[in-house]
Specification:
Oligomer: single chain
Structural class: mainly beta
Length: about 475
């Protein structure tokens, strides 16, 4: 038998995890204690969104990334749902748009104002009703600007066209609760894991199941596409209740290519794949470790690199989009870790050590950008396109000129004595109260001066009018 060394040269073999300093963490957030197997966290280049504990409905908090530190206990929340929020996802093309789903069987789309929330937000841009039971998962289409997928406990996946605010397709091939959804690069295929122990690859527009695997020895929990490698990775549990990872050919799910046992812990393994570096990260729910592998198309297919270790258990992890990374520090991935016991969100940067200060083109290829390749109508008509790529070399990010357009909706207001109470929120701190007081004093002074000027002008016009009346009879 030929001997094959387990070691192979890789430019990512020395990647290490670096925890952000305390001043870069977000503290004092009442992270939800819900046991649903989701991340409860979503990140983009502007905002960090966290599902929080709340009474009388579901809520999540949105904090600008530029304002880390201890969060005010009375910080405004997005609190329009009547049940617990189960999943939140930022739109990949509109940085102020976030979708949420809840136990109240609704999906809602919110528009966060620039600079973050200034008051509690209860009115969504869109409220989407179509599921008969609670909605546990949502996913944005990776290349189309107005397509959203939602999976409910009614065993159905609905495809929403946000340009009209209605469901346009329904995928009804599952016989139990859907655990996870993942798209390939151009969004032409959808992989799902289900509680019925089956792994499916689906053509989303028609709802046709292209491939299916009945996983008896490997009970699948999570699935993720490996970019354009035509492979799938699943994490789950073996028949001996050990955590396992499996690699599959997306065109033949009869047998996994590789199965590998990870450990004997009980928490769910969350997989994260970086298509640019071909690195796979495995993070366990309830433990503080993050393992990472390099994926290849040749044997041994999965090359173990290293492990980030921490004593603090993680409830979930948010992932920063590629264009939000610190290219100067050779950062290739960034997690935002939820530490429930401390009410803490800490960033963890995965860094490739390099001595040179120049731009490292070999670890930053062209990556998916912030411009959609298709409109909702184009995708629904049957067109597939790869993502619009961008370079990370420029530190200047061109502003996105796109505008999210939702169906027309009547704006609600509460007007008393000509004042909209929803637009005029009372101050929360003493400093805000003083600033508002002085602004109002200045406004009163300005109005008094304007009133006095108009009084003088009125008297002048009255005198001119009297003079005209006196002159007119004499001229007749």
């Amino acid at each position: 038998m030929s001997w094959r060394p387990t070691y192979r040269s890789s430019k990512f073999r020395n990647v290490y995890g670096k925890v952000g300093n305390r001043e870069h963490c977000f503290d004092g957030i009442p992270i939800t204690k819900n046991v649903h197997d989701n991340h409860f966290c979503a990140v983009n280049v502007k905002f960090l969104a966290i599902v929080t504990e709340s009474a009388g409905g579901g809520a999540f908090i949105v904090v600008p990334l530029s304002q880390p530190g201890r969060i005010d206990p009375h910080h405004p929340k997005v609190c329009g749902h009547q049940g617990n929020v189960l999943d939140i996802k930022w739109n990949p093309f509109f940085e102020n748009i976030i979708a949420s789903c809840s136990e109240d069987a609704s999906v809602r789309v919110w528009e966060i104002p620039e600079g973050g929330l200034r008051r509690n937000m209860t009115e969504a841009v869109l409220e989407l009703y179509g599921h008969s039971r609670r909605v546990g998962l949502i996913e944005w289409h990776p290349t189309s600007s107005g397509i959203l997928f939602s999976a409910g406990y009614d065993y159905k996946i609905l495809i929403w066209n946000l340009e009209i605010g209605e469901p346009v397709k329904m995928i009804d091939c599952h016989t139990d609760v859907i655990l996870n959804m993942s798209f390939n690069t151009d969004g032409s295929l959808l992989a799902t894991s289900c509680k019925d122990k089956k792994l499916r690859v689906i053509e989303p527009r028609s709802g046709r199941v292209l491939q299916s695997a009945n996983c008896k020895n490997h009970r699948v929990n999570r699935v993720v596409f490996l970019g354009n490698m035509k492979r799938l990775v699943t994490t789950g549990v073996s028949r001996w209740n050990t955590r396992q990872i499996a690699l599959w050919d997306q065109e033949d799910l009869s047998m996994p290519i590789v199965e590998e046992e990870i450990d004997g812990l009980s928490g769910m393994l969350f997989p994260f794949y970086d298509a640019d570096t071909h690195m796979l990260y495995l993070a366990g729910k309830g433990d503080g470790n993050i393992r990472y592998f390099e994926m290849t198309t040749e044997k041994p297919y999965m090359q173990y690199l290293m492990e980030y270790r921490s004593p603090a258990p993680q409830k979930g992890l948010g992932v920063m989009p590629k264009h939000g990374l610190d290219v100067g520090a050779c950062e290739v991935f960034r997690f935002y870790k939820l530490v429930t016991l401390k009410g803490l969100i800490e960033p963890i940067s995965m860094i490739v050590p390099r001595r040179s200060d120049t731009y490292q083109e070999d670890i930053y290829p062209m990556t998916a950008g912030t411009e959609p390749a298709l409109s909702a109508g184009e995708w629904l008509s049957g067109i597939d396109k790869d993502p619009v790529l961008m370079s990370l070399k420029d530190t200047y990010h061109r502003p996105n000129q796109l505008v999210f357009k939702a169906p027309a909706k009547e704006k609600k207001s509460v007007v008393v004595n000509g004042i909209d109470l929803l637009e005029n929120v009372p101050p929360r701190t003493e400093n805000e109260l003083l600033r508002m007081f002085f602004r109002q004093q200045d406004e009163l002074r300005r109005l008094k001066e304007e009133l006095a000027t108009k009084d003088v002008r009125i008297r002048q016009l009255e005198l001119e009018l009297n003079n005209l009346k006196n002159v007119s009879p004499n001229n007749v």
